[in-house]
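cache lookup: miss for this entity combination. No prior model stored, computing from scratch. Input as submitted by user K.M.:
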Amino acid sequence: MDADSLLLSLELASGSGQGLSPDRRASLLTSLLLVKRDYRYSRVLFWGRILGLVADYYIAQGLDEDQLAPRKTLYSLNCMEWSLLPPATEEMITQTSVVKGRFMGDPSHEYEYTELQKMNEGDKVYEEEIVIRIKEETRLVSIIDQIDKAVAIIPRGALFKSPFGPTHVNRTFEGLTLSEAKKLSSYFHFREPIELKNKTLLEKADLDPSLDFMDSLEHDIPKGSWSIQMERGNALVVLRSLLWPGLTFYHAPGTKNCGYIYVGTGEKNMDLPFML
Amino acid sequence: MHCPSTKEQLAPLCAPGINLSDLKEILCAGSCLPLLRAQGPVSGFQPQLGRLQVGLAERGRGAEAPPNHRSRISTFLDPFPRIMATGALHCFPPPPAEPRPGLLWRQDAATCRASRTQKSLRRPQQSNSTVLTPSTSAQSLSARSYLFVYLFVFFLIPSMEDSTALEQEEENQESGEEGRPWDDRTAASAQDPLPGLSESPESERGPDPGPQPGSSPPRSPPVGDLAGPGAPPPPPPPEPSSPPPALAGPHLAAPGQSDQTSSGIPEAGTPRPEHLQQQSSDKGASTPHQTCPSKGNAFQQFQQTPGHLCEPRGANGDTSKQGPRASIFREEDSESKHQLDGAEPELPSEPEAAPSMLEMAVQSAKAYLLKTSSASGLNLYDHLSNMLTRILDERPENAVDIIENISQDVKMAHFSKKLDTLQNENEMLPTYEIAEKQKALFLQGNLEGADQELEDEMAEPSLPNVMESAFYFEQAGVGLGSDEIYRIFLALKQLTDTHPIQRCRFWGKILGREMNYIVAEVEFHEGEDEEVEEEDVTEEKDNGESEGEEDDEEELPRSLYKAPQPIPREESRTGANKYVYFVCNEPGRPWVKLPSVTPAQIVAARKIKKFFTGRLDSPIISYPPFPGNESNYLRAQIARISAGTHVSPLGFYQFGEEEGEEEEEVESGRDNFEENPDFEGIQVVDLVESLSNWVHHVQHILPQGRCNWFNPIQKREEEEEDDDEEKEEKEESDYIEQEVGPPLLTPISEDLEIQDTPPWTTRLSSNLIPQYAIAVLRSNLWLGAYAFCNGKKFENLYIGWGHKYSPDSYAPPVPPPVSQEYPSGPDITESDDPSVEEEKAFREAQEAAALAAEENEESEEDEDDYD
């Protein structure tokens, strides 16, 4: 959700029960403004909160002019002092995928993971336990990246791609209509398209290159990983990810108000196939 | 823009002097029609045509006002007939340094002759037509004149060729001289291309930027064109003052002539496009137009148009390298400026044949723009004019950046009108429906008997102060929006008003895939829960029926399997059924009472993990199968969550005094508690620091699915004696090991860890102002379960998906092993046949045994059990 309209956004996303306490809200409003200035972002998003056992991580993201350019991620434990996280790499993600369980809330906390590795020493083959230490900060980076790639979404038309390549906020976006808002095809993954290239020419025929340049949620796997609900008597559409429980996307049809927030444990719901 | 067919048709043209890019431009600027017309002559007499063109343009000049004619020529040469220019060049290669003068010169020479004849031929016809109502016969006239011209030129060619070379230099000088005076005289105009042509264009442009834009497009590269339209606004002020005389004078003086030309042009046959164009140009260049009378303008514009189209030709002689030129739109823009600047008096003398062709080009361009889209029914012309209107009305910042959006908006505005009837109405229905229902919530205070209820409630309020709790939860960073919570508050009030409820509280919200559940926990007044017993009866009936069926089939072999006795559910007001739960999907929708939970449901619910859909009657499809539908599953999960997460500060509750009986305590723990009137509160800091200051006040649910242990074996015996009696009785003797859970009001510090994860997280709501902060307790086992305590008050709340947390991924239980069909034993187990060796060995052994037996009768052989 846009840091500029934080209060309204929180109110709209409150249906999932995860809000912010007044002091957090106030400090975010103050500190994100400074973040925007200090890091020279054109737009700052309040991304959400990862619940730790000891403390919670508050996450914000900074965007450049090009909305699809890699986002800079910052975290804070007290909503005032923000630290920049390094960009996620493939290695990080594979490395941290072995870590299970909850976040602690301490970026320097180290998870220990013992791995059995086959060692060849001459003729002998034996297994040796290797303890891998993974810093929580690394895990945080990779989880945020995974969530961003999997379930960060925006409504169709909120961004447009200019003929020169960069993607901009569509200032004439006036919200989805009610009927559009109820369809998954009206929402896009807020990331560089992956599936779009695999589409056939026939499927691409009706796409508007300036608007339909991202993957829509329609063909997300597993199917049914989104819960789409109309709340407040059709005045608000709320999408909740079942794959990453805690991610709430809200949009008031007919208005520009839209955004997503993640408040959760930072764990993927691997049980989804059993739960549908 | 252009159709391939014309391109093919034009292919032969390319050979002599036209390159493809030129063709393309022509196609862009005009359309097929003029080209088709041009094709004949061009392919035949390429050079001649060029000259013809020029000649036609010059014709008038020779006869009447020379300076104006020059401008005329240049305008002529402007956008359209580059073919001709190239043709001309082909014929008379101009000096590389000064191509333009060369061209001009030739034009002069050619036109002198051409004009004379043409004029005489043409005059009478032209005079027939009137200003405002162009005759349709003009078309045929122009066609005829075409022929004349071609014939004429054809014969003239040889002599022209001879003369041109000689006259070239003279002409250059001449044009230079003429250009200036003319410039001064008209003080206007874009239309002074002549100077531009004869002299260096740049120097000429410097002094009078106002007129420039009109004529500049053809001469300057595209970039210049773009700049042109931007420039006009400043210049207009001076212009209007000077041009008007020029406009008015000539036009008034020779209206007939000017009109003649226009009427002589095929365009006249289709007046509509002109008007539209005029409109658009009005918008495009509003300032210039203000000075001109609208009607006259249309025709002026006409006359100008051809000139304008022609102009680039001349220019192209040397600027053809500059690449693709202005698009139609741009040309039209400049056209509109021409209108102002180039309102020359000498229009009447304009050559007939060539203009008609050029005008055809413009005309067909317009026609193209006006072509109605088969898909949307719109045309580009109207659309562009609407867009410009809108831009000028709204004056947005950086209009050029958002031109696409404006275009889209204009289109959308066009369509929205059609769509606003039925569809929207349907869509909005649910919105109104829920609003209508919620309206009832807000009006319920006005219902009859409200006063009485108020008095009752004062005595013993059944409705909790939801808003107060919500405030505290908000401090903790949990909870729904204040708007939603207030609606829930109202809905709870409705619930307490319509049901005999003693106590009520907002339990929480369970998220579903399609809808969510708002859950209210209530306690009825004594003796008000008849429904529960009814359900009991129906269950018993079911049992009776199934037994009856078994009796009927007595002859058939009966299964020896005897299902384990179902563990009876706990009576209402005890154990897991202590409270009754109501749910609704949204505040304002009806409250639905959930059925009581049975132990079997709780046991099954522990083994499955399913998302709620939001529809109570939807089936639960799972393995192991769940006994019941979603309402039962929901009820089971609520019971589990309550048992796991409902906590209170130590000392808030105390055990009731009546529970003195030893037996009960031993067996089920004390299950009665009451508020401690002497509770003095606990320091918030203590609550945060030590989990032992929090206690469970909801009974633990045993693995059996009940809170109070029930002995199934005892039950079975009972059942044999008396089938009907199903009510559980507290058994004193245990045959199997009793399941024991932690007793009520056990501190949560004794809760089990979830694989190294502490089950609870405590926190102060605010570290900034700790003095007034409250203690917040978050369950890590049931994500979404929270409790707060500010020292004296506490509340529990659950908002989540209704699933228990597990660090490991869920795996459904494996199916039970396949049951045996019959007991296996040596009697029925097939054995392998003995091999020959075995038989031999056996026989030998037998013989030996027999021998031995003979010898020693007492001994016994052991090899008998040989298989």
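stored under new cache key. The longest strand of chain A covers residues 110-121.
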